[in-house]
Amino acid sequence: MSTENREACSPPSGRAAMKKELPKQFQDYRNVWVFIELEHGQVHPVSIELLGEGRKLADKLGVHLAGVVIGPPGGQGTANAIADAAFAYGADLSYLVESPLLAHYRNEPFTKALTDLVSANKPEILLLGATTLGRDLAGSVATTLKTGLTADCTELNVDSDGSLAATRPTFGGSLLCTIYTLKCRPQMATVRPSVMAMPQRVNKPTGSIIRHELKMLEEEIATKVLAFFSDGDSNTANLAYADVVVAGGLGLGAVQNLQLLKDLARTLGGDFGCSRPLVQKGWMPVDRQIGQTGNTIRPKLYIAAGISGAVQHRVGVEGSDLIVAINTDPNAPIFDFAHLGVVADAISFLPALTEVFTKRLEPRNLEKFVQ
Ligand SMILES: Cc1cc2nc3c(=O)[nH]c(=O)nc-3n(C[C@H](O)[C@H](O)[C@H](O)COP(=O)(O)OP(=O)(O)OC[C@H]3O[C@@H](n4cnc5c(N)ncnc54)[C@H](O)[C@@H]3O)c2cc1C
After folding, report:
1. What is the CATH number of the domain that holds 161?
2. Number of domains forming the structure of the chain
3. Which of 6, 36, 175, 249 is most buried when burial is the number of CB atoms within 10 A of its CB?
4. How does residue 5 score in pLDDT terms, banded at 50, 70 and 90?
């Protein structure tokens, strides 16, 4: 959080006074921008989620929404990012910076491209996905421009005075804090994948493209990409975009019981995850953690086995369409927000559930496992 942002946490009366102090050089900053992230030529879904949020902010402010695409020239990636993402999800215009130096993500040329674009075109709000790339780029762009950046927002809104109200969890997730960037522009925010809902495509998308040149030479870039190796790991988690997620917590009791989650997830064509203590115990890698400091998920079906439902876990799962909780304690907090609750021992209920789905047995075969 920048100094600007910390000051902005003062009470509303102080905020109003500070708003008047917005320096002259920032007073003509207009429009909402969304950085459209490309992952090996494919648009990252978080960019589309942000276009949906950006459209709402732009409409409230009565300004344009722009998508920002940075990549190598002539590739299908940048063309698709503009046509299939920016314009298809509501942007009025797109800024495009193409250069061979931008073929792979490197901090220096991407920061140069984005900061030059901002300085030339003066957006008031700039949104990026809180992905590995987005976090790296947002931090260096904010520090280069000396502006405020609110990371990992869970809600974005426009205040009555037109400021961006960027809300995120604080104090270990027990409180929500709304942060304002009052004395500098653009107001920057990152949002994690799946935190915002996917918007609808617009009918007959159109828009204008504004090209910018990257004023940088390869000799000025310290980082060199010599080769790219995929981790090739078919076990890589894809929790943020899975339709079905089965997760376990400390209630599973032993590392070998994690197989019960994997079996059910595979049977349902989904992915598996866990609560934080399982990562801390070294039972699962950190990319499978669900919750405030892990993945935020929005599956159609979330099955939580042996998870108590602490607030830090809840914030990462409450966007799920259907939450099914399996817990031996009928008073476990997870039953306060689960849509379906099963008071049962997860160690025997999970394999029974897998069997029911595998053999398409009658659900009543599960009744003997419920307490
Ligand atoms: C800053 C901060 C960030 C955090 N971030 C995260 C985060 O991102 N994600 C996260 O998950 N947590 C996070 N936590 C930790 C969080 O506060 C909880 O401690 C954690 O979620 C609890 O994990 P659990 O539900 O697996 O374990 P417990 O709270 O110990 O719950 C275990 C549950 O299993 C039940 N149970 C026991 N035996 C069985 C059985 N045989 N069958 C079925 N149920 C059984 C028990 O009744 C109990 O409800 C964070 C904490 C802090 C302070």
Report:
1. 3.40.50.620
2. 2
3. 36
4. very low
